[in-house]
Write a structure and sequence with these properties.
With about 90 residues, this protein is an all-alpha fold. It has one domain. The chain is elongated and about 50 Å long. The N and C termini lie far apart (about 35 Å).
Length: about 90
């Protein structure tokens, strides 16, 4: 499920925010975390697909223990990083 959220963010939300930032900021540079998310959104989409395939493999093999938890932590971190990076320019009051 988290992989689908990541995929949705990378394919639909990030491009819309990129357009908003272009209109809002003009030629001013974006924060580095925001630039990373916008410039590498296709990498984030591919990673979302990889995490989905890994999660399906883990469930199919009935792997228990640390692996499913580690996968979930990485997916949540990626979602958290993307959301925070997209909102940083909106909080800049300069």
């Amino acid at each position: 499920m988290f992989s689908l959220v990541q995929l949705f963010l990378a394919l639909f939300v990030v491009p819309r925010f990129a357009a908003i930032f272009q209109d809002m900021l003009g030629n001013r540079p974006l924060p580095s975390s925001t630039s990373i998310v916008i410039d590498y959104r296709w990498l984030f989409a591919v990673l979302a697909c990889v995490w989905l395939l890994v999660a399906l493999f883990v469930v199919r093999q009935r792997v228990s223990g640390l692996y499913p938890s580690a996968i979930m932590v990485v997916m949540l971190f990626q979602i958290f990083f993307t959301v925070i990076a997209l909102f940083i320019p909106l909080l800049d009051h300069s």
